[in-house]
Amino acid sequence: MSPHREPPGRLFIGGEWTEPDGGHYEVIDPATEEVAGLAPEASREQVYAAASAARAAFPAWSRTAPEERAAILDRAADLIQRDAAAHAGVARAETGATAATALGMQVAVAAARFRRYARGALEPVETGLPPQVNPAGPMGKAGVFGALAVRQPVGVVTCVTSYNNPWANAAGKVAPALAMGNTVVVKPAPQDPLSVYRMAAALAEAGVPPGVVNVVTGSSPAAGEAAVGSPDVDMVSFTGSTAVGQRIAEVCGRHMKRQLMELGGKGAAVVFDDADLDSAVRGIGTTFSFYSGQICTAPTRVIAQRGIYDRLVEKLTGYLGFLKVGDPAARDTVVGPVISAAHRDRVESYIELGRKEGARLVAGGGRPAYDKGFYVAPTLFADCTNDMRVVREEIFGPVVVVVPFDGDEEEGIALANDSDYGLIDYVWSGDVSRAFRVARRLRAGGVGVNTVGRNMEAPFGGFKKSGVGRDVGSYALHAYSETQAVVWTG
């Protein structure tokens, strides 16, 4: 079968669409609870075969001219854009994302990332270092020693991707890894793997050689465990929960595999008395709507200074009134379902926990009245304290908690930093000098000052239990590189 087509229900191993040993499992549309498609169930042996194919393809691909790698990634971007509408339909059906999000934030972002790393393939990989004059000694005669720091591909990279954005997350791993000359085994999240197979088909059509890109799936942890544990794998790039990341890190540690981990978050939004509250509400409100709160960078934990606390809670409550929850295919829907029944149950259990812990339920808290679909009403808790589990733990749903503070910025900083997580925090203040001063004190990999926007060349990653390493922009090219020193004397 042509590698330029994506037949349903087959693995992609060594450039071939391969029948799965374990049959298939159903991918469920979170909005309708109907079957969106069938995904292949790979055996351990097939996952190992994918890693072996990647290992065999690595020598030739790593020596391919950067210009050729760039051309292939550019063509992949063109092909993804060519079929964007069809891709978005599949993404919406398997993720529950709204139609606009599936097209504009999933498929379009994936195409943009392949385009960005087509340019990235051409970035210099050598850095000249100042010469060093060494006197004669035990190491030899006196001389002037030159040196280069050279970035080399790591080898075979297993990319374990998240369910909240199968297009953008997978592209953010695969594109820079390929640009640097690595080969990849992609293990998508079991809930929504169909989009990643479409990405593989686009790459095959673009001219990626057999074995350079492989995709394997499974409904249980077994496929992921094999993709991480294979002796042919040199590096693991993972996006997902901290608990799973810790288990992957244990395997990587035993075998000295390199790792890049983008894990959980509980983003603090510190809102001071002089803040533009409308701006803060718009930013915090994205938690309720964007991916139905299933995003690790969301400002889910609001630390509000007392002078604006009541007005902020009031404005957030009003914001909720404008959010239509419902069918993600409808044009006016803002909040779609969460990914699965199990995850809906998890989010609802946290909402019940918040009630029991004494948080004040201001809005939401119930299940929207739909016969089908894994919907959770956007929920706002006020009068929270930092010792509550709903404040400390990642809920990964449309739930915002608000913690008041009476003191100065030192108290706000202390409350924000009192967390196991540190991915992205936020500061809202009319005093830009204070906002930047506070931002530098927050223990997080990124800080948004009066915005939830992102600069897509800025390093992305977490402090503490939010991850290891940095990617995005040129930082991703470094993440998928090993640095080699080349020294000589003249």
Please write the CATH class name of the largest domain.
Alpha Beta
CATH T-level fold name of the largest domain = Aldehyde Dehydrogenase, Chain A, domain 1
N- to C-terminal separation? 56 Å
Question: Structural class, please?
Answer: alpha/beta
Find the CATH superfamily of the largest domain: Aldehyde Dehydrogenase, Chain A, domain 1
Number of domains: 2
CATH architecture of the largest domain: 3-Layer(aba) Sandwich
What's the layout of helices and strands?
Elements: E1 11-13, E2 16-18, E3 24-28, E4 35-40, H1 44-62, H2 66-82, H3 84-95, H4 99-120, E5 126-134, E6 143-153, E7 156-160, H5 166-179, E8 183-187, H6 194-206, E9 213-215, H7 221-229, E10 235-239, H8 242-255, E11 258-262, E12 268-271, H9 277-289, E13 301-305, H10 306-320, H11 341-357, E14 360-363, E15 379-382, H12 389-392, E16 399-405, H13 409-417, E17 421-422, E18 424-428, H14 432-441, E19 446-449, E20 463-464, E21 467-468, H15 473-479, E22 481-489
Parallel strand pairs: 7-8, 7-10, 8-9, 10-11, 12-13, 12-18, 13-16, 15-16, 18-19
Antiparallel strand pairs: 1-2, 3-4, 5-6, 6-22, 11-21, 14-15, 17-20
Helix pairs in contact: 1-7, 2-4, 2-6, 3-4, 4-5, 9-10
